[in-house]
Task: inverse folding
């Protein structure tokens, strides 16, 4: 054993005492670094739970709560790792330069992913929509099911799932149909040429006055919209609560179809007159 120790001393150019001092120093640094990692990771979990509970008590959107707690947990872990590496005596300048170069390479490779992440942050903070809203994004319509860091997930009315990249969502046109408390319902009803226009307008206004879901303020509107090829088109508008929009829309269409004829009004359809000329 002594021979082995002597050979090591010869290779390193150190005596046994110096070697022991070095081992003790390295061991101490490793123990301190391990303690820092353990405490830091433990702290990240505690901080995440505390922040989550605090935000949930303030009724902040669940997607934002998840994002913030995850972000803070990651930051604490990164700072913990850097602190532990520093404790080991490694040169942080070279480490940071290497990390920066690696980050640049990864960023160039995953530029689309980073764009989606940035888009997710914008959506979560600016809140153009929230979970449960009915929206149109980039030509896709559906109910917002989830707002994730990289994607937004919609459910269509026929129960299809649409996954949209947050980068495109944040930079595209968003129509939120349920953000406001009330919406305007628009119809265009056609009557035949020769029908009593005044009567048609009165009937449509009566239908809207009898529907308790249609708001009195703003007031409903009925007016001559267009003299079309085969019909006189009447523009009809009414304001309703957002949740009543589709029920009112379909019920009004059905009532017009069922009752216009009883009121002496006809619903026209495209027609073509053909004149035959007999040659003598």
Result:
């Amino acid at each position: 054993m002594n021979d082995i120790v002597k050979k090591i001393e010869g290779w390193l150019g150190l005596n046994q005492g110096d070697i022991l001092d070095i081992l003790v120093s390295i061991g101490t640094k490793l123990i301190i670094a391990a303690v820092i990692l353990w405490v830091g990771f433990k702290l990240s979990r505690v901080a995440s739970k505390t922040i989550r509970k605090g935000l949930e008590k303030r009724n902040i959107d669940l997607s934002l709560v998840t994002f913030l707690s995850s972000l803070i947990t990651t930051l604490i872990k990164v700072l913990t790792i850097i602190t532990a590496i520093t404790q080991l005596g490694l040169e942080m300048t070279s480490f940071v330069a290497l990390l920066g170069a690696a980050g640049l390479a990864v960023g160039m490779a995953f530029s689309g992913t980073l764009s989606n992440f940035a888009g997710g942050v914008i959506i979560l903070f600016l809140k153009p929509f929230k979970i449960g809203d009915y929206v149109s994004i980039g030509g896709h319509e559906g109910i917002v099911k989830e707002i994730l860091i990289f994607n937004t997930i919609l459910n269509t009315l026929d129960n299809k799932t649409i996954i949209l990249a947050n980068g495109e969502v944040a930079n595209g046109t968003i129509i939120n149909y349920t953000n406001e408390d009330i919406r305007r319902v628009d119809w265009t009803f056609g009557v035949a040429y020769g029908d009593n226009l005044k009567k048609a307008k009165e009937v449509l206004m009566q239908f809207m006055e009898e529907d308790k879901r249609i708001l009195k303020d703003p007031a409903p509107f009925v007016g001559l919209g267009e003299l079309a090829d085969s019909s006189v088109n009447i523009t009809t508008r009414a304001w309703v609560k957002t949740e009543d929009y589709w029920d009112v829309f379909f019920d009004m269409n059905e009532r017009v179809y069922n009752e216009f004829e009883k009121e002496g009004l006809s619903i026209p359809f495209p027609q073509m007159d053909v004149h035959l000329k007999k040659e003598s």
Remarks:
- The longest strand covers residues 182-191.
